[in-house]
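Homework help thread (please don't just give me the answer)

Our assignment gives two proteins as sequence + C-alpha coordinate strings and asks us to describe the second one. The first is just a warm-up. Here they are:
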Amino acid sequence: MERERMSSLQIQAYDYLKDMILSGKLDPDELYSETRLSAQIGISRTPMREAIQCLSQDGYITVVPSKGFRVRSLSSADMEEIIQIRCAIEGFCVHLAAVEIQTKKGQKLLAELDRLLKKQEKALGGRGGSGRDGHEGQAQTKEDMERFMEYDHQFHQALIDFVGNREFVQTFQRSMHLIRLTTQGALAVPGRAEDTLKEHRLIYSYLKEGQGDAAYKLMLVHLMTPLTMHIAE
Protein backbone atom coordinates (compact mmCIF):
# COMPACT_ATOMS: atom_id res chain seq x y z
CA MET A 1 0.00 0.00 0.00
CA GLU A 2 1.23 3.50 -0.83
CA ARG A 3 2.26 5.50 2.24
CA GLU A 4 0.18 8.48 1.08
CA ARG A 5 -2.95 6.48 1.91
CA MET A 6 -1.78 5.51 5.40
CA SER A 7 -2.43 7.39 8.64
CA SER A 8 0.52 8.50 10.75
CA LEU A 9 -0.16 5.81 13.37
CA GLN A 10 -0.50 3.18 10.69
CA ILE A 11 2.85 4.24 9.20
CA GLN A 12 4.40 4.12 12.68
CA ALA A 13 3.14 0.57 13.26
CA TYR A 14 4.07 -0.55 9.73
CA ASP A 15 7.61 0.83 9.94
CA TYR A 16 8.13 -0.61 13.42
CA LEU A 17 7.11 -4.12 12.40
CA LYS A 18 8.94 -3.94 9.07
CA ASP A 19 12.17 -2.90 10.81
CA MET A 20 11.75 -5.72 13.33
CA ILE A 21 11.28 -8.22 10.51
CA LEU A 22 14.20 -7.02 8.39
CA SER A 23 16.52 -6.90 11.40
CA GLY A 24 15.63 -10.50 12.28
CA LYS A 25 14.11 -9.58 15.64
CA LEU A 26 10.86 -11.45 14.93
CA ASP A 27 11.02 -15.25 14.91
CA PRO A 28 9.38 -16.89 11.85
CA ASP A 29 8.32 -19.81 14.06
CA GLU A 30 6.43 -17.64 16.54
CA LEU A 31 2.79 -16.53 16.32
CA TYR A 32 2.54 -12.81 17.14
CA SER A 33 -0.44 -11.12 18.75
CA GLU A 34 -1.89 -7.90 17.38
CA THR A 35 -3.01 -6.88 20.89
CA ARG A 36 0.39 -7.49 22.47
CA LEU A 37 2.23 -5.57 19.76
CA SER A 38 -0.20 -2.65 20.00
CA ALA A 39 0.53 -2.37 23.70
CA GLN A 40 4.25 -2.72 23.08
CA ILE A 41 4.32 0.24 20.67
CA GLY A 42 1.70 2.21 22.55
CA ILE A 43 -0.91 2.61 19.81
CA SER A 44 -4.48 1.40 19.43
CA ARG A 45 -5.37 -1.89 17.77
CA THR A 46 -7.00 -0.30 14.69
CA PRO A 47 -3.84 1.20 13.12
CA MET A 48 -1.93 -1.93 14.15
CA ARG A 49 -4.51 -4.14 12.42
CA GLU A 50 -4.31 -1.97 9.28
CA ALA A 51 -0.51 -2.09 9.34
CA ILE A 52 -0.59 -5.88 9.65
CA GLN A 53 -2.88 -6.12 6.62
CA CYS A 54 -0.47 -3.91 4.64
CA LEU A 55 2.50 -6.02 5.68
CA SER A 56 0.61 -9.11 4.57
CA GLN A 57 -0.15 -7.53 1.18
CA ASP A 58 3.53 -6.54 0.84
CA GLY A 59 4.71 -10.10 1.50
CA TYR A 60 6.35 -9.68 4.90
CA ILE A 61 3.95 -11.75 7.01
CA THR A 62 1.25 -14.41 6.86
CA VAL A 63 -1.93 -13.61 8.77
CA VAL A 64 -3.51 -16.41 10.83
CA PRO A 65 -7.22 -15.44 11.17
CA SER A 66 -8.35 -14.74 14.75
CA LYS A 67 -4.90 -15.65 16.09
CA GLY A 68 -2.28 -13.22 14.81
CA PHE A 69 0.48 -13.44 12.25
CA ARG A 70 3.80 -15.10 11.46
CA VAL A 71 6.79 -13.67 9.67
CA ARG A 72 6.81 -15.08 6.16
CA SER A 73 9.45 -17.72 5.54
CA LEU A 74 11.13 -18.47 2.23
CA SER A 75 9.85 -21.37 0.14
CA SER A 76 11.38 -22.68 -3.07
CA ALA A 77 8.42 -21.25 -5.02
CA ASP A 78 8.81 -17.84 -3.35
CA MET A 79 12.50 -17.74 -4.18
CA GLU A 80 11.97 -18.72 -7.80
CA GLU A 81 9.25 -16.11 -8.30
CA ILE A 82 11.17 -13.26 -6.68
CA ILE A 83 14.29 -14.06 -8.68
CA GLN A 84 12.28 -14.12 -11.92
CA ILE A 85 10.82 -10.70 -11.07
CA ARG A 86 14.29 -9.33 -10.31
CA CYS A 87 15.70 -10.73 -13.56
CA ALA A 88 12.95 -9.00 -15.56
CA ILE A 89 13.38 -5.64 -13.81
CA GLU A 90 17.11 -5.52 -13.16
CA GLY A 91 18.00 -7.00 -16.53
CA PHE A 92 16.17 -4.13 -18.19
CA CYS A 93 17.72 -1.58 -15.83
CA VAL A 94 21.32 -2.69 -16.36
CA HIS A 95 20.88 -2.75 -20.14
CA LEU A 96 19.44 0.78 -20.17
CA ALA A 97 22.19 2.00 -17.85
CA ALA A 98 24.84 0.72 -20.27
CA VAL A 99 23.22 2.63 -23.14
CA GLU A 100 23.21 5.87 -21.14
CA ILE A 101 26.46 5.39 -19.23
CA GLN A 102 28.27 8.30 -20.93
CA THR A 103 25.63 10.80 -19.86
CA LYS A 104 26.00 12.85 -16.69
CA LYS A 105 23.39 10.64 -15.08
CA GLY A 106 25.27 7.52 -16.16
CA GLN A 107 28.56 8.79 -14.77
CA LYS A 108 26.86 9.55 -11.47
CA LEU A 109 25.61 5.95 -11.36
CA LEU A 110 29.14 4.64 -11.97
CA ALA A 111 30.46 6.75 -9.11
CA GLU A 112 27.79 5.37 -6.78
CA LEU A 113 28.43 1.77 -7.83
CA ASP A 114 32.17 2.27 -7.35
CA ARG A 115 31.53 3.63 -3.85
CA LEU A 116 29.41 0.59 -2.97
CA LEU A 117 32.00 -1.82 -4.37
CA LYS A 118 34.61 -0.30 -2.08
CA LYS A 119 32.21 -0.69 0.86
CA GLN A 120 31.67 -4.36 -0.01
CA GLU A 121 35.40 -4.91 -0.36
CA LYS A 122 35.98 -3.39 3.06
CA ALA A 123 33.30 -5.62 4.60
CA LEU A 124 35.20 -8.63 3.27
CA GLY A 125 38.49 -7.46 4.75
CA GLY A 126 39.93 -4.93 2.31
CA ARG A 127 40.09 -3.78 -1.30
CA GLY A 128 41.95 -6.89 -2.41
CA GLY A 129 39.46 -9.16 -0.62
CA SER A 130 42.08 -10.47 1.81
CA GLY A 131 40.72 -10.98 5.30
CA ARG A 132 42.67 -10.29 8.46
CA ASP A 133 43.11 -14.02 9.05
CA GLY A 134 44.71 -14.53 5.64
CA HIS A 135 41.69 -16.17 4.00
CA GLU A 136 40.71 -14.31 0.87
CA GLY A 137 37.52 -12.31 1.28
CA GLN A 138 36.58 -13.96 4.59
CA ALA A 139 34.11 -11.77 6.48
CA GLN A 140 35.25 -11.50 10.11
CA THR A 141 31.95 -11.10 11.94
CA LYS A 142 28.22 -11.34 11.55
CA GLU A 143 28.21 -7.53 11.45
CA ASP A 144 30.63 -7.59 8.50
CA MET A 145 28.27 -9.86 6.57
CA GLU A 146 25.26 -7.71 7.47
CA ARG A 147 27.08 -4.68 6.08
CA PHE A 148 28.10 -6.62 2.98
CA MET A 149 24.48 -7.65 2.41
CA GLU A 150 23.23 -4.09 2.88
CA TYR A 151 25.72 -2.78 0.31
CA ASP A 152 24.67 -5.62 -2.00
CA HIS A 153 21.07 -4.42 -1.81
CA GLN A 154 22.15 -0.82 -2.35
CA PHE A 155 24.14 -1.85 -5.45
CA HIS A 156 21.02 -3.34 -7.02
CA GLN A 157 18.81 -0.51 -5.76
CA ALA A 158 21.07 2.05 -7.47
CA LEU A 159 20.53 0.35 -10.83
CA ILE A 160 16.77 0.33 -10.33
CA ASP A 161 16.71 3.95 -9.18
CA PHE A 162 18.67 4.95 -12.29
CA VAL A 163 15.69 4.13 -14.54
CA GLY A 164 13.28 6.21 -12.47
CA ASN A 165 10.34 3.80 -12.84
CA ARG A 166 8.22 4.08 -9.69
CA GLU A 167 6.66 0.65 -10.20
CA PHE A 168 10.11 -0.92 -10.36
CA VAL A 169 11.15 0.83 -7.14
CA GLN A 170 7.96 -0.13 -5.30
CA THR A 171 8.19 -3.74 -6.45
CA PHE A 172 11.78 -3.96 -5.20
CA GLN A 173 10.84 -2.45 -1.85
CA ARG A 174 7.79 -4.68 -1.42
CA SER A 175 9.96 -7.69 -2.16
CA MET A 176 12.76 -6.71 0.22
CA HIS A 177 11.92 -9.32 2.86
CA LEU A 178 12.09 -12.22 0.42
CA ILE A 179 15.12 -10.68 -1.30
CA ARG A 180 16.87 -10.44 2.06
CA LEU A 181 16.07 -14.06 2.92
CA THR A 182 17.37 -15.20 -0.47
CA THR A 183 20.54 -13.14 -0.05
CA GLN A 184 21.14 -14.44 3.48
CA GLY A 185 20.83 -18.03 2.32
CA ALA A 186 23.14 -17.52 -0.64
CA LEU A 187 25.82 -15.67 1.34
CA ALA A 188 25.83 -18.45 3.93
CA VAL A 189 27.37 -20.73 1.29
CA PRO A 190 31.20 -20.63 1.60
CA GLY A 191 32.75 -18.47 -1.11
CA ARG A 192 29.48 -16.94 -2.32
CA ALA A 193 30.21 -13.50 -0.84
CA GLU A 194 33.53 -13.39 -2.70
CA ASP A 195 31.88 -14.51 -5.93
CA THR A 196 29.13 -11.92 -5.46
CA LEU A 197 31.74 -9.18 -5.20
CA LYS A 198 33.54 -10.45 -8.30
CA GLU A 199 30.27 -10.46 -10.26
CA HIS A 200 29.44 -6.95 -9.08
CA ARG A 201 32.87 -5.76 -10.19
CA LEU A 202 32.42 -7.33 -13.61
CA ILE A 203 28.92 -5.86 -14.02
CA TYR A 204 30.43 -2.48 -13.15
CA SER A 205 33.18 -2.98 -15.76
CA TYR A 206 30.69 -3.94 -18.46
CA LEU A 207 28.59 -0.88 -17.66
CA LYS A 208 31.63 1.40 -17.72
CA GLU A 209 32.49 0.07 -21.19
CA GLY A 210 28.89 0.37 -22.39
CA GLN A 211 28.59 -3.39 -22.95
CA GLY A 212 24.87 -3.71 -22.28
CA ASP A 213 24.43 -7.25 -23.57
CA ALA A 214 27.30 -8.58 -21.47
CA ALA A 215 26.07 -6.73 -18.37
CA TYR A 216 22.54 -8.04 -18.95
CA LYS A 217 23.65 -11.68 -19.32
CA LEU A 218 25.86 -11.54 -16.24
CA MET A 219 23.11 -9.90 -14.19
CA LEU A 220 20.77 -12.81 -14.98
CA VAL A 221 23.43 -15.36 -14.03
CA HIS A 222 24.17 -13.38 -10.86
CA LEU A 223 20.52 -13.26 -9.79
CA MET A 224 19.74 -16.85 -10.74
CA THR A 225 22.64 -18.37 -8.78
CA PRO A 226 20.68 -18.96 -5.52
CA LEU A 227 18.30 -21.24 -7.43
CA THR A 228 21.15 -23.66 -8.02
CA MET A 229 22.12 -23.64 -4.35
CA HIS A 230 18.80 -25.03 -3.04
CA ILE A 231 18.86 -22.62 -0.13
CA ALA A 232 15.10 -22.32 0.40
CA GLU A 233 13.45 -24.17 3.23
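The one we have to describe:
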Amino acid sequence: MVYIILYGNPIGNFINDLGFSLKYTLLSIWLPYSFAILIVYYKNQRDEIESLKTNANKPTEKRLIVFRDENGKIKFSVLASDLLLIESTDNYVSIFYILQNKLQRKLLRNTLKNLEEMLKENAIFRCHRSFMVNPANVEFMQKTVKNSILK
Protein backbone atom coordinates (compact mmCIF):
# COMPACT_ATOMS: atom_id res chain seq x y z
CA MET A 1 0.00 0.00 0.00
CA VAL A 2 2.88 2.34 0.77
CA TYR A 3 4.33 1.41 -2.60
CA ILE A 4 1.15 2.54 -4.36
CA ILE A 5 1.09 5.80 -2.46
CA LEU A 6 4.77 6.52 -3.23
CA TYR A 7 5.05 5.24 -6.78
CA GLY A 8 1.53 4.88 -8.09
CA ASN A 9 -0.33 7.26 -10.30
CA PRO A 10 -2.39 9.27 -7.80
CA ILE A 11 -4.73 10.62 -10.43
CA GLY A 12 -5.85 7.65 -12.53
CA ASN A 13 -5.13 4.18 -11.20
CA PHE A 14 -4.79 5.00 -7.48
CA ILE A 15 -8.24 3.62 -6.59
CA ASN A 16 -7.77 0.47 -8.70
CA ASP A 17 -4.26 -0.14 -7.33
CA LEU A 18 -5.46 0.44 -3.76
CA GLY A 19 -8.33 -2.06 -4.20
CA PHE A 20 -5.99 -4.62 -5.76
CA SER A 21 -3.48 -4.19 -2.92
CA LEU A 22 -6.12 -4.46 -0.17
CA LYS A 23 -7.68 -7.56 -1.76
CA TYR A 24 -4.45 -9.56 -1.89
CA THR A 25 -3.23 -8.30 1.48
CA LEU A 26 -6.45 -9.40 3.17
CA LEU A 27 -6.46 -12.75 1.33
CA SER A 28 -2.90 -13.49 2.43
CA ILE A 29 -3.54 -12.51 6.08
CA TRP A 30 -6.94 -14.19 6.46
CA LEU A 31 -5.79 -17.81 6.76
CA PRO A 32 -3.02 -17.39 9.39
CA TYR A 33 -5.17 -15.10 11.54
CA SER A 34 -8.08 -17.54 11.35
CA PHE A 35 -5.88 -20.37 12.59
CA ALA A 36 -4.47 -18.18 15.38
CA ILE A 37 -7.98 -17.24 16.54
CA LEU A 38 -9.08 -20.90 16.46
CA ILE A 39 -6.05 -21.96 18.51
CA VAL A 40 -6.68 -19.27 21.13
CA TYR A 41 -10.38 -20.21 21.30
CA TYR A 42 -9.50 -23.91 21.67
CA LYS A 43 -7.04 -23.20 24.52
CA ASN A 44 -9.58 -21.02 26.36
CA GLN A 45 -12.26 -23.70 26.05
CA ARG A 46 -9.86 -26.41 27.24
CA ASP A 47 -8.86 -24.31 30.28
CA GLU A 48 -12.51 -23.65 31.12
CA ILE A 49 -13.33 -27.37 30.92
CA GLU A 50 -10.41 -28.19 33.22
CA SER A 51 -11.51 -25.59 35.76
CA LEU A 52 -15.07 -26.93 35.68
CA LYS A 53 -13.78 -30.47 36.27
CA THR A 54 -11.73 -29.40 39.29
CA ASN A 55 -14.58 -27.34 40.73
CA ALA A 56 -17.05 -30.19 40.25
CA ASN A 57 -15.01 -32.41 42.57
CA LYS A 58 -14.91 -29.83 45.36
CA PRO A 59 -17.64 -30.00 47.97
CA THR A 60 -20.03 -27.09 47.91
CA GLU A 61 -20.96 -25.07 50.96
CA LYS A 62 -24.64 -25.04 50.04
CA ARG A 63 -25.04 -28.83 50.16
CA LEU A 64 -27.91 -30.01 52.35
CA ILE A 65 -27.71 -33.00 54.66
CA VAL A 66 -31.07 -34.72 54.94
CA PHE A 67 -31.96 -36.43 58.22
CA ARG A 68 -34.45 -39.29 58.24
CA ASP A 69 -36.10 -41.07 61.16
CA GLU A 70 -35.92 -44.82 61.74
CA ASN A 71 -38.76 -45.37 59.24
CA GLY A 72 -36.95 -43.53 56.46
CA LYS A 73 -39.17 -40.42 56.52
CA ILE A 74 -37.42 -37.10 56.01
CA LYS A 75 -37.65 -35.01 59.18
CA PHE A 76 -35.42 -32.01 58.41
CA SER A 77 -32.35 -30.80 56.52
CA VAL A 78 -29.27 -28.87 57.57
CA LEU A 79 -26.56 -27.17 55.52
CA ALA A 80 -23.40 -29.25 55.62
CA SER A 81 -21.35 -26.25 56.68
CA ASP A 82 -23.69 -25.59 59.65
CA LEU A 83 -23.70 -29.11 61.13
CA LEU A 84 -21.54 -29.39 64.25
CA LEU A 85 -22.04 -32.78 65.87
CA ILE A 86 -24.43 -35.64 66.46
CA GLU A 87 -24.82 -37.21 69.88
CA SER A 88 -26.44 -40.58 70.49
CA THR A 89 -28.60 -41.61 73.43
CA ASP A 90 -29.88 -45.13 72.82
CA ASN A 91 -32.48 -44.95 69.99
CA TYR A 92 -32.43 -41.16 69.76
CA VAL A 93 -29.84 -38.78 68.39
CA SER A 94 -29.39 -35.12 69.16
CA ILE A 95 -28.24 -33.10 66.18
CA PHE A 96 -26.44 -29.85 66.96
CA TYR A 97 -26.18 -27.23 64.23
CA ILE A 98 -25.93 -23.48 63.70
CA LEU A 99 -29.00 -21.57 62.51
CA GLN A 100 -28.90 -17.77 62.24
CA ASN A 101 -25.72 -17.66 64.36
CA LYS A 102 -27.35 -19.58 67.24
CA LEU A 103 -26.72 -23.13 68.39
CA GLN A 104 -29.75 -25.32 67.70
CA ARG A 105 -30.54 -28.87 68.78
CA LYS A 106 -32.96 -31.30 67.16
CA LEU A 107 -33.95 -34.67 68.58
CA LEU A 108 -34.44 -37.46 66.05
CA ARG A 109 -35.56 -41.04 66.60
CA ASN A 110 -32.83 -43.01 64.90
CA THR A 111 -29.63 -44.76 65.86
CA LEU A 112 -26.14 -43.45 65.33
CA LYS A 113 -25.28 -46.59 63.39
CA ASN A 114 -28.03 -45.85 60.83
CA LEU A 115 -26.95 -42.21 60.56
CA GLU A 116 -23.35 -43.27 60.10
CA GLU A 117 -24.34 -45.23 56.99
CA MET A 118 -26.39 -42.32 55.63
CA LEU A 119 -23.69 -39.69 56.31
CA LYS A 120 -20.63 -41.51 54.91
CA GLU A 121 -20.75 -39.51 51.67
CA ASN A 122 -21.03 -36.19 53.56
CA ALA A 123 -17.68 -36.57 55.40
CA ILE A 124 -19.25 -36.68 58.86
CA PHE A 125 -17.06 -38.97 60.97
CA ARG A 126 -17.79 -41.09 64.00
CA CYS A 127 -15.19 -40.19 66.60
CA HIS A 128 -16.70 -42.03 69.58
CA ARG A 129 -19.27 -44.64 70.37
CA SER A 130 -21.83 -41.89 71.01
CA PHE A 131 -20.63 -39.00 68.81
CA MET A 132 -20.21 -38.02 65.20
CA VAL A 133 -18.54 -34.74 64.23
CA ASN A 134 -18.25 -32.54 61.19
CA PRO A 135 -14.46 -32.09 60.81
CA ALA A 136 -14.99 -28.89 58.82
CA ASN A 137 -16.16 -27.22 62.05
CA VAL A 138 -13.46 -28.58 64.38
CA GLU A 139 -10.92 -25.90 65.21
CA PHE A 140 -9.12 -27.45 68.18
CA MET A 141 -8.55 -30.99 69.45
CA GLN A 142 -6.81 -32.04 72.65
CA LYS A 143 -6.32 -35.56 73.93
CA THR A 144 -5.95 -36.00 77.69
CA VAL A 145 -5.49 -39.15 79.72
CA LYS A 146 -9.22 -39.77 80.22
CA ASN A 147 -10.87 -38.07 77.24
CA SER A 148 -10.57 -35.91 74.13
CA ILE A 149 -11.68 -32.31 73.78
CA LEU A 150 -12.97 -30.91 70.50
CA LYS A 151 -13.73 -27.22 70.03
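TA reply:
I won't write it for you, but here's a hint about the kind of observation we're looking for: The mean pLDDT is 82.
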